[in-house]
Design brief:
vWFA_dom_sf; 21 strands; 520 residues; 4-stranded mixed beta sheet; Rossmann fold; Kinase-like_dom_sf; alpha+beta; 13 helices; 6-stranded antiparallel β-barrel; Phosphorylase Kinase, domain 1; 32% helix; a-kinase_dom; ATP binding
Length: 520
């Protein structure tokens, strides 16, 4: 936990700057730190809301990350302090970001050694704590660090649902993810608040057409397993997989007219995800195929991304009767959205399928632009993106499907030529400040700037993350800001505001200068 406290102190300035640039409003920060009951009556530290970032840094620096005899800590006492000892303003975007590596006391939260297995006498019921969060209009975000908090997260999610408290979970096991996670959590809440405040009141007269309805998504119940499953115990599924053909030029990306390829697929998917981010969960998966027995069927026409899935896949028949053949196996990952709609939409046709097509469109556009960038810039670290596809698997319910994003599994970081997963930038101006990564961060930032330049300000590829290998940067799950907010993944496409946030923190480097890219 000590390294995460240091990271909060080091990253708070960048966090506040990013949020302020996006929301165009003053940002107030507060801090509540908790340890365990055995650490004395003063085991909770509270810093009231302030706009003085330097004061916040000094306060957090002085908080010791030590104490506690068993694994659980006074989590519920910390939450109580956050809602009762802090003065939360009205008519504001209020977000509580909770980073924790230990569960509360009580058997329902943790099955290991616990000094208070029945809970502590001062613990307030979850209904009271989350009822207060609802009354104060606070969104609750949790930063997941270890598996010790999995049961707690599940119970908190259930109570948030009962109390109508928005909740999101972010993976901050690597402290470099703290800043982008906090910024994403606040901006998600800000967008939601903006939509709510824009709704006309009963007595208001509105002389313009109302905006289209905003999809209402709920966080899906998640339980995790870090282990690769015993594949022999899992059913081989049959479905269809769709991918975009490489765009012919930049204009095709800007216009959104991309052809598709569809083919049958046999696959296995782990029952539980092994990782997650703010947008999607990731499952171990396998693809079974024979090169000589699979043909790709292109779509009959060039269409928009949403229509292409339903138009092509509904006409395609999967094959069967191949049980006697040996199939090659490839390690893959399947990705599903953390937030889903109602059950019928999650399993249905166009609404859910379109979300996956939009996400795939992000990666297709980014991949094509990366190839052009490598050709023009000839960077020391070339950029490439994993080939993204979308899988549709029929369920036992008539005319309903499960969808997955589909990619090759990243190579394991087992040598000095492959790094662990890196978060280089996000979609709100965050830039990795690790000096050891400065050379690859420069390439990533220049690439984002160049995508804006080459598309004449129509779009920008951001949120760059992946691995550095001996061949260059292998990236996945980018975001694309576009002047058309209905394009790409609408959850991460922040349009011109997102582009402005990039330029607020961007400083042109030697690659930008060599490419002679324009600026706003």
């Amino acid at each position: 936990m000590a390294s995460h406290l240091v990271a909060v102190k080091m990253q708070i300035s960048a966090i506040v700057a990013s949020i302020s640039n996006f929301c165009q409003a003053a940002v107030h920060v507060a801090f509540v730190g908790y340890k365990d009951h055995c650490d004395g009556n003063d085991h909770i530290d509270v810093l009231p809301f302030t706009t003085d970032v330097a004061y916040f840094e000094r306060f957090v620096r002085a908080v010791p990350a030590k104490g506690g005899g068993d694994v659980p800590e006074d989590v519920l006492g910390g939450l109580l302090a956050a809602v009762t000892q802090l003065t939360w303003p009205h008519n504001s975007t209020n977000v509580l970001f909770h980073i924790g590596d230990a569960p509360p006391h009580g058997r329902q939260f943790y099955g290991g050694r616990d000094s208070f297995p029945d809970g502590h006498e001062n613990d307030k019921p979850l209904s009271v704590l989350f009822g207060l969060l609802h009354a104060l209009d606070i969104q609750y975000n949790f930063g997941h660090m270890t598996g010790c908090t999995t049961e707690m997260e599940t119970l908190f999610q259930s109570m948030c649902h009962e109390c109508a408290v928005p909740m999101a979970v972010f993976n901050v096991a690597d402290h470099v993810n703290i800043a982008p996670s906090v910024v994403s959590g606040v901006t998600m809440s800000s967008r939601s608040s903006s939509v709510s405040s824009a709704k006309p009141g009963r007595n208001n007269v509105v002389d313009v057409a109302p905006p289209p309805p905003v999809p209402q998504y709920q966080r899906r119940t998640i339980s995790f397993s870090p282990h690769v499953p015993d594949w022999s115990t899992l059913e081989v599924l049959k479905g269809t997989v769709v991918s975009y053909m490489p765009p012919v030029d930049v204009d095709a990306i800007v216009a959104g007219t991309l052809d598709t390829l569809v083919r049958p697929i046999k696959l296995r998917v782990a029952p539980q995800p092994f990782a997650f981010g703010s947008e999607r969960m990731v499952y171990y998966a396998q693809e079974y195929y024979k090169h000589s027995r699979i043909s790709s069927v292109p779509s009959s026409k060039s269409t928009s991304s949403c229509a292409s899935w339903t138009d092509v896949a509904d006409e395609f028949e999967t094959t069967s009767g191949d049980a006697a053949f040996d199939y090659q196996v490839e390690a893959m990952v399947a990705k599903s959205f953390v937030y889903g709609g109602e059950a019928s939409a999650m399993l249905g046709g166009k609404p859910e399928g379109c979300r996956y097509m939009k996400a795939m469109e992000c990666q297709t556009a980014a991949s094509f632009l990366a190839r052009l960038f490598n050709h023009e810039a000839k960077p020391r670290h070339k950029i490439c993106f994993l080939h993204a596809k979308v899988v549709r698997v029929p369920t036992t319910i008539a005319d309903s499907y499960v969808y997955y994003g589909w990619e090759k599994h990243f190579e394991s970081a087992t040598s000095s030529t492959i790094t662990p997963l890196l978060k280089l930038t996000n979609n709100l101006g965050y830039v990795c400040d690790d000096e050891s990564m400065a050379d690859v961060v420069d390439v990533a930032a220049a690439f984002s700037h160049w995508t804006w330049h080459v598309t004449k300000g129509k779009l920008m590829v951001v949120d760059l993350q992946g691995q550095r290998t001996s061949k260059g940067l292998v990236l996945t799950d980018p975001a694309v800001h576009c002047v058309d907010l209905e394009r790409f993944n609408s959850g991460t496409n922040l349009g011109v505001r997102g582009m402005d946030a990039f330029f607020q923190s961007h400083q042109c480097n030697t690659i930008c200068n060599a490419l002679q890219v324009s600026t706003p």
